[in-house]
Specification:
Shape: globular
Helix content: 25-40%
CATH class: Alpha Beta
CATH topology: Alpha-D-Glucose-1,6-Bisphosphate, Chain A, domain 4
Number of strands: 8
CATH superfamily: START domain
Number of domains: 1
Largest sheet: 8 strands, antiparallel
């Protein structure tokens, strides 16, 4: 799918923060990437239910504020806020797990900066095992697919190729680079370096299916 997987993974700037929501400690994963298109085009790619499946997953439901949506085989939730073409916020609900997703678009000289902020209450044991890469690498893969979609003038990304990508040699290189990036972001936020980097290796093994990476 991509010729330089490590370089593409490097297009994302990653940040990890600590926060609280309703008195409950949360961890926040922040991903930023610049796309070479205008904000209107990027907004449509992110919010048009006819276009979203070309790079992400089919989505059903009501995408207006207060409406409930569902992505195919993945999370659903409620649209909490929408300020076209600047930002939107939704809950991200998978089973009994509820987290919060905010996407913001900012014009830049090179196109448009997309900032994705995913906040979630995290079980300490799960965080120690996988760190922010558990959710972060999934978003990295989505942001990569979005980039391919935009670079192809809106053509769809092959979903079968997308699913298989992490198990291919370029995909493993991409996932490893992304997981390492999230591990270093966790270290920058204060996590012990040895623990964070081990979690990055476990995340790589999880996404690639390669136990030797753990």
């Amino acid at each position: 799918m991509i010729e330089d997987p490590v370089g593409v993974a490097g297009l994302v700037a990653r940040e990890v923060r600590r926060s609280t929501r309703d008195g409950v400690p949360t961890r926040v994963a922040v991903a930023r990437r610049t796309y070479g298109t205008d904000r209107g085009d990027l907004w449509q790619a992110l919010t048009d239910p006819e276009r979203i499946p070309r790079w992400f997953l089919p989505v059903t439901g009501d995408l207006s504020v207060g409406g409930r949506y569902q992505t195919e085989g993945n999370a659903g939730g409620v649209v909490e806020r929408c300020a076209e073409p600047e930002s939107f916020a939704v809950t991200w609900e998978f089973g009994e797990m509820v987290s919060w997703l905010t996407v913001s678009l900012t014009p830049a000289a090179a196109g448009t900066v997309l900032e994705l902020v995913h906040e979630a209450p995290v079980d300490p044991a799960t965080w120690e095992q996988f760190g922010p890469g558990a959710v972060g690498v999934g978003w990295d893969l989505a942001l990569m697919a979005l980039g391919l979609h935009l670079a192809a003038d809106g053509a769809p990304v092959d979903p079968a190729a997308g699913l298989a990508f992490p198990t291919t040699p370029p995909g493993r290189a991409f996932v490893e680079a992304a997981a390492t990036g999230w591990a270093e972001a966790a270290v920058a936020d204060g996590d012990p370096a040895e623990t964070a980097r081990a979690a990055g290796r476990a995340t790589t093994a999880f996404y690639t299916g390669d136990p030797h990476e753990a």
